Amino acid sequence: MELIINVFSLVGSLALFLYGMKTMSEGLEKFAGDRLRSILAAMTKNRVMGVLTGIFITALIQSSSATTVMVVSFVNAGLMTLTQSIGVIMGANIGTTVTAWIISAVGFKVNIAAFAIPLLAIGMPLMFSGKGNRKSIGEFIFGFSFLFMGLSFLQEAATTMNIGDMVAAMLSHVPQDSFLTIILFVIVGALVTMIVQASAATMAITLMLFGMNIPGFGLEEAAALAMGQNIGTTITALMASLTANTQARRAALAHMLFNVFGVVAFLIVFYPACNAVSWFVENVMGGGNDLFKLSAFHTAFNIINTLLLIGFVKQIEKLVCRMLPMKAQDEDYRLRYISGGLLSTAELSIMEAQKEVHHFGERCRRMFGFVSELMQTHDEVEFNKLFSRIGKYENITDRMEMEIAAYLNKVSEGRLSDASKAQIQKMLRQITELESIGDSVYNLGRTLNRHRQHCREAFTPEQTQHMQTMLHLVDGALAEMMNHIALPPARTGIIKSINIEHEINNYRKQLRNQNLHDVNAGLYSYQLGVFYVDFISECEYLADYVINVVQAGRGLNNDDEDMAYNGKG
What is the CATH superfamily name and number for domain 346-565? Predict the structure, then answer.
């Protein structure tokens, strides 16, 4: 019974450690959400700045896995290139070594759990604060406290269970001074980290075991475990990329190849490297505790690995592109930038959603281009094929609206600033209007199809010219709409869109009046006039949906058109 309690205490201590790290990381991500976006956008211009950015972000949020998943998410959303992501991932590996140094310095010497509980008293009022930033700081304090409480409890549970003796007994069956033993420890470190999904936790366990001076478990064995952890931690990003696009999967693959190469390279010079680190700690750093040797090895491993490969980022990119060739985008593929498996912090996810809304608009405009082709297609087989394609696109726009809305609703469940809440409401309005644009484009195609089937009279050259002019005006409105979706509201004026929409309205009135005159004059039949006016009117309806998208992006209501037109919006 006592053994069962001790085992559960050990597992519970590890769970508290992992929960503390997760809470601390999430609190910092939420607090610095907008800042992280700005940093990643501004500091990844070249590979060196990318590495420094990865170091800074990971040292800040204390999780290379979180940084890597964030990077994969950004690549998936088109916010970061594959080249930029590789540099940040290299830096993340260096940044994660900060955790080992903190634990080596204070984790097992000072009873940090003694003042971790008083820290909760400071964090509690912040957790219940009405301001988002204070809540995030409170989460960080709670996470920090839980992390070191878990670390303290983990050491107590390990001591109670005589883990040192158990490990020594297992190691007695392993050949000593064998290179195969080192490789075995690398594999064990990778497997344990894959299961735990947190290299910081396995590093803490490794440091704890190393500090127990277990026979047969020296610096070499501990260093091998640490190298294995670098391979195991790549599984988190790989899992996150499974539902992502090809570029995101390439970023995750680059992360794995980078770490695997580093382990293989270090195994070649493993024993000299361990001796060099020991000499450095003893003679340059002035000794200190033995844990510093393992932390120094962990840091040296990642820094040297980065220095070796930072000049080969382009080659790494080419390699992963060959291993994961880009598949042709299938028309049935709906969401390109967001997916259910890739939801980082709520603030950061808004950028992904915005990119998807822009993609939605691009698809609607491409769909609209099929109408002009349909007008010029005379072969019946080709006409039916193109009309079927328009219908297929219309179904896709319906599904895109529902999936983006579901994603935005999921994002809105997180804690958001007022500006982010307003942004989500704008995007929800935009996707509703974009779906209506898809419906309207399908109606244009259906009008042409019905005319082909039920009217033997072809459109007159004048009617065709007017219809093409109307299509040109609407396409101009769509192009201006895409500019509004792509750029922040402060950088775009709405007057041009309003002017185009008014021009379309006036042109529709002019053509409807002209149609009545031409039908009465007997220039063409009443039935042909009906199809003609239906087409022109549907173009005007489509333009209304376009201006609604523009207004939604600026937070204007449909009733605010006159105000915007008068230069006040």
Answer: Phosphate transport system protein phou homolog 2; domain 2 (1.20.58.220)
